[in-house]
Known about the structure:
The chain is α/β, with parallel strands linked by helices.
Amino acid sequence: xxxNNSELAVLLDKARRGDLRATGKLLxxxxxxxxxxxxxxxxxxxxxxxxxxxxxxGIPGAGKSTLISRLIPELRRRGARVAVIAIDPTSxxxxxxxxxxxxxxxxxxxxxxxxxRSVSTRGLKGGLSLAALSMIExxxxxxxxxxxxxTVGVGQAEVDIMSAAHTIxxxxxxxxxxxxxxxxxxxxxxxxxxxxxxxxxxxxQKAYEYLSFALDKGELGSYDSxxxxxxxxxxxxxxxGMAELADAIDEHASYIRSIGLxxxxxxxxxxxxxxxxxxxxxxxxxxxxxxxxxxxxxxxALKAKGILAEASEVARRACKNLDNLPPT
Length: 328
C-alpha cells in the first residue's frame, strides 16, 4: 500500500475520530516504516509522547496473554484506552503464527476503547523490533493511554522493544524448576514489577518465597535505585490480583513521570528506531554492492589478494550508493 502524505493524513484523522478500519490500515503501513514519507512519521510522532508503554515478558507458558486479557478490564475501569501489541512466534515449518491462548484477548473486540494488534515475526521487512516501535508511536498518537507490548522471549528484538517500555512486567509461574534461573539473564533481570501467575498451583508459595529472596538480595529487579521492584501473586485464569497489579502499574507510571524518565523513554524508543532503520539501510546497501562486484571479488579471493581491503571498499561504496537505493 503506497499512499502520499495527504492520503495518510486523512487516514490518521479518521483513526483519531475512532475509525477502527483506518487504524488497522495505518498499523499495516507502520509495520514497514521504510515506505513511509518521513514527513508523515514526524506528524505521527509530534502527536505522541503521552502514553504509558508497558512491556510484558517472561518465560514461555507463564500465561502472559491470559494475564493481559484479564488486566485490560481493570485498566478500562480506570478510564484508560488500551492498545495491545501481541508479538507471535512463527512456526519454522509451517510459517504460521502460533496464536494459542491469545484468542482470549478477542473477548474485548467489541470494546471501542481497546485495540489488539497481533504481529507475526515472519515477513516483517523492517524487522520485529522496528515494526513494534513504529506501531507504539501510532497508538500513542491516537490517544491510547496504556500500550501493552507482549513479547515471546528474551532475544535482541525483545531487548530493543523492552528498552522503549516505561514499565516492565516479568511474568513467571510455579513449578518451572531451573527455568527460574532464566529470570537472571538479559532483560529478565531488569523488571519493575514481577508477577507470579498461576498462584493457585502447587508450589506457588515456594516460588513466591524464592523470588522474594532474589529481589531482596538484588539479584533481580530494576537498576533504578529510586524504585523498589514489586512482586505479586496472581491467578489470571481466576481473575485474582488484577486490581493490585494495576495499582502497581499506575504507581510506577507516576514515579517515572515524577523523575522525568517518561520523556526520556520516549526519546529512547525513537533513538532505537533510528538505529534499527539505519542498520537495515546499511545492510541492504552492502548486499546490493556485494552482488554487483561479486565476480570481481571472487577473482581476488582466489588470488588471496586485498581481501580485507576489499571489505572496506565495499562498505565505502555501499554508503555512497545509499541515496540511489530503491525502497526496501
